[in-house]
Design goal:
By secondary structure, this protein is an alpha/beta fold. The strands form three sheets. It has a six-stranded mixed β-sheet, with helices on both faces. A hairpin with a 7-residue loop joins β1 and β2. It is elongated, with a radius of gyration of 24 Å.
């Protein structure tokens, strides 16, 4: 059974293995906001804590059989690193859609990787089947007391680093991280709120808590691949019902904006799952009048999608905007439009001028522009300026 003694033991085992990650004030992110930077943990995510503690508790017989796990990437790396360090063979089932960087990192830590079509839950089913077939010891990524205890050590650090913390925002996938954090917080400082956050495209725990029973989503879709879980565990569901105060969700654009904000203002890289806590604070999903810790759970984002995430974040915050309008097909009309845009202070990144667009009349052209802008207010200023000049905004 999960206990504070188990979490204390996990901390002793992790001493010298897991980093005590920094906790720092982030006023540029929001009022009363602090960041607990588990993206700076060994292997790039909090998962090392639970994975290493789980491996350390295996019997000699279990070690000899080898360990198998399923993961979208971070638990995979944690198990691979921990198993190799302890001389244990590891097999990891990963979704074939997992970021290539996480797949390669898992291999580099010494694991044998089995790619499975689908999402995390498909990888889970394959891992369970292989464990039964070959006798491997299964290391569940979240529905396991030892794993949860390892994750709970983060709460001990937070309350030591910021004793007057009033609430902690924690990403939720299957629920192992928030179960450990909430259990420890409510035993040590019960008045401190613990708030979970999920991607709107994968709200399995939020929906389960709302309905009072474990549900399985038909599908999940989010850039936060680390928390793209269709179904929470029975153990984590029970712990969340008992110890978590509230669960909110954030959109893809909000996650992207949080990633961008962390890069720009804190000079730190977070993956989608890790940035959900910051997104919840930034976009008013949580009351940040209280002293609030955002647990940034990981930083293993695939560089191949980073540029797309940045573009989405820039668009959400009004730093990039696209405007489509029509001009009369006469000499000088495009120049007049561009001069008006220039007077607003916007910078044109790209422009398309199309005579044959279905939206245009015989004597007009459709002009689409991607603009570099300052913020949402600046976008509104441009819209108003063009509207006052008689331009019809086709994508407003």
């Amino acid at each position: 059974m999960l206990s504070m003694e188990m979490i204390g033991d996990a901390r002793n085992v992790l001493d010298g293995v897991a980093r005590v990650t920094p906790l720092f004030n982030a006023p540029a992110v929001g009022k009363n906001i602090y960041i607990k930077a588990e993206n700076l943990q060994m292997t790039g995510a909090f998962k090392l804590r639970g994975a290493y503690y789980k491996i350390s508790c295996l019997t000699e017989e279990e070690r000899a059989r080898g360990v198998i796990a399923c993961s979208a990437g971070n638990h995979a790396q944690g198990i691979a690193y921990s198993a190799t360090k302890n001389g244990v063979r590891s097999i990891i089932c990963m979704p074939a859609s997992a970021p290539l960087s996480k797949i390669e990192a898992t291999k580099n830590y010494g694991a044998e990787v089995v790619l499975v079509d689908g999402v995390y839950d498909d990888a889970y089913n394959r891992a369970v089947a292989l464990a039964q077939e070959y006798g491997y010891t299964f290391a569940h990524p979240f529905n396991d007391e030892r794993v949860i205890a390892g994750q709970g050590t983060i709460a001990l650090e937070i309350l030591e680093q910021l004793p007057d913390a009033e609430q902690i925002i924690v990403p939720i996938g299957g629920g192992g991280l928030i179960s450990g954090v909430a259990y420890a917080v409510k035993h040590l400082k019960p008045e401190c709120r613990v708030i979970g956050v999920q991607a709107a495209g994968a709200p399995s725990m939020a929906d389960s808590i709302r309905q009072g029973r474990i549900i399985e989503l038909p599908s999940v879709s989010t850039i936060a691949d680390g928390i793209a879980v269709k179904k929470p565990g029975d153990l984590t569901f029970a712990l969340c019902r008992q110890y978590v105060d509230e669960i909110v969700t954030v959109t893809e654009s909000e996650i992207a904006s949080a990633i961008l904000t962390l890069m720009e203002t804190q000079k730190t890289v977070a993956e989608g799952a890790g940035a959900t806590s910051v997104a919840a604070a930034m976009f008013g999903k949580v009351d940040t009048e209280k002293k609030t810790v955002c647990l940034v759970s990981g930083g293993n984002i695939d560089v191949s999608i980073l540029s797309r995430v940045i573009t989405k974040g820039l668009t959400k915050t009004g730093r990039i905007t696209e405007i489509t309008t029509k001009v009369t097909d006469k000499p000088g009309q495009l120049t007049t439009l561009l001069q008006r845009v220039a007077r607003t202070g916007a910078n044109i990144i790209s422009i398309s001028h199309n005579r044959e667009d279905e939206k245009s009349e015989i004597n007009s052209c459709v002009v689409s522009m991607v603009l570099e802008t300052r913020n949402i207010d600046h976008v509104h200023e441009i819209h108003n300026s063009l509207a006052q000049a008689g331009y019809e905004l086709l994508n407003r």
